Every structure is written in C-alpha cells, then in structure tokens.
C-alpha cells in the first residue's frame, strides 16, 4: 500500500490514509496545502496546523450518506487546486470513503461516469473501492447531472425516502410520518398520465398511471414503457404513497387497509415490509389497490375530446388530469 498516490492526470490531487498525515516530508514534497478528512474519528489538530483543513464525518458503511457532501467537497478540492496548491483527500485506508469523494469530483469536473472515474483513480491506487452504497450514490449523483444543490433535486429526495423506508424496514418499523414521501405532492418529471384509477363504487380518482410502481419484469421492459402492460395478470395495482392515504399511512402502523376517501369502500391495503403480488413478485414497500375495486379510465390529453369513454356529468366540472389533488 502506498503512502499517498497522485490521481492520474494534470491535477495536483492526492489520496491517502490516516498514516499519510504523519509523513510531513512526503506531504511537503507533493506541495499539499489542503487536506480533506473523510472519517468519524477524533483527529489530532496539530497535524493540520499548516493546512487548510475540512472534515466530513462519515463511516465506511453502505448506508452512510456521502452524497449530501459531494458538492461541498468538490468546492473544497477545486478551491485548493485553483489556489495552486496540492489537495489530499484521505480516510482511514484511502480505499473507500476518500476514493468516493475523488470519484465524485472527477465525475463532476470531467463529466465522466463514476466507473470511468474509478478506473482512472485505480491506475494510481489499484485497491481503491467505494463500498456498494457509495457506488450507488455516485451513480445517482451522475444521473442527477452533478447538481450543486443536491438537497432540492427530486431524485435525491426520492432516494432519501427510499433509504428511510429501507432503514425502518430493517428494524421492523413503519417509516416516521414526516419522512413518508407523498409522491403527488412533488413535481413529476414526466407530466403525461396514460390512465386514471378510479374507485369502482364512487368514481373518485385514486391515482394516475404516473404513480404506479411497476414491479413485473422491471428490468426487461423498456423504461418509460406502458405501465398497463406490466400489470397484466396481477390482481393489484402497486402505488407510491399518495396524499389521500396520508391519514392512514401516518399512523405508524406496519400494515393496514386503504379506504376510498370519498365512499369509504375498502379499496386496497399496504405493508411497509412488502407484499406479494398474485404474479409471485414481492413489492417493497407494498401499497396496493385491488383491481376488483378499481376502474381503469383512459386519461384525456388536455384539450382533446375523447369519444371512446362516456364521462359521467360530474367530470366536466373537475380540473384536468394532473391538476387533481389525489
Ligand atoms: Zn369510493
Ligand atoms: Zn404482479
């Protein structure tokens, strides 16, 4: 294991472990002026006296959120490099956490994939290996187009929610009420809904196809493909949490029934720890409407007249698709 390694390329960017810090001469030879520590350990302050120093407290575990620190770390690295100095990013071993931060920087700076960034880093330090959770965070960061404001990015918020559900599931609990993401209270990236799901008894709109969770053959079918095809043969529609479910989902129960908010008919059920569909697939978390209680109604494109469906008289007074509060 080398003491510290220079990231290949023309940047004065270095990666190392804890013991690197004690080799003053080596740090001096590399012209290190800035040090970024990625660990949750008490650090000897004297070691950093002659450097610009930042600490990100993080453990090397899959569910540690490093993603939220990427923008600030990138900024710190860039400032150090722009000032003409050398920048050292270190963790305990210089293997997972510091490699993740350097990959995030290279991904953002060079607009490359995290895998390409890691390959580049491994040319200098072959054993660099972000843990699986960090690798997924890097992929998400890249997919989000490396925003400066991660917190306000819907994909990040969605990831936080899924993480919360997974963490609470691991300890056998329902997610905390304020952590549940009611998907219809957030802007959707795609605005067109193919169809609506309505209560068979009272016709109340309960969901649009945008909020379906496509569990079947998810990997094999084309992404963004028609949701209806993928639920053929299943006796449930699986959904994201929607605001009409709020009174039930916020009770903190592990599972329960879902009633139509208008006519109070039992239309479905939920189980945070997951539910098996009639097709055999498990959906986690499982929030489902029973097909027998629901009518699938094709959504009208705004402004178009759909002669195929006879709308009940009340339809005319309702706001158009996408504007309804589900
Ligand atoms: Zn109803
Ligand atoms: Zn199914």
What does this entry look like structurally?
- The structure is a single chain.
- The chain has 326 residues and is of the alpha+beta class.
- Helix content is 25%, strand content 19%.
- The chain folds into two domains: 4-146, Protein tyrosine phosphatase superfamily (Protein-Tyrosine Phosphatase, Chain A), CATH 3.90.190; 153-218 and 233-300, Beta Complex (Metal Binding Protein, Guanine Nucleotide Exchange Factor, Chain A).
- It contains eight helices and 14 strands.
- Strands 1-2-5-3-4 form a five-stranded mixed β-sheet.
- β6 (195-199) and β7 (205-208) form a beta hairpin.
- The chain is elongated, with a radius of gyration of 25 Å.
- The protein binds zinc ion (2 copies).
State the separation between the terminal residues, measured CA to CA.
57 Å
How are the strands of the largest sheet arranged?
Answer: 1-2-5-3-4
Radius of gyration: 25 Å
CATH architectural type of the largest domain: Alpha-Beta Complex
Query: Total number of helical segments?
Result: 8
Structural class: alpha+beta
- State the total count of DSSP E strands: 14
* CATH topological fold name of the largest domain: Protein-Tyrosine Phosphatase, Chain A
Order of helices and strands: EEHEEHEHHHHEEHEHEEEEEE
Task: Please name the fourth-level CATH homologous superfamily of the largest domain.
Answer: Protein tyrosine phosphatase superfamily
Identify every distinct bound molecule in the structure, by name, code or SMILES.
Answer: zinc ion
Largest beta-sheet characterization: 5 strands, mixed
Which regions have little confidence, pLDDT < 50, spanning 5+ residues?
218-229, 303-323
Organism: Vermiconidia calcicola
Protein name: Tyrosine protein phosphatase yvh1
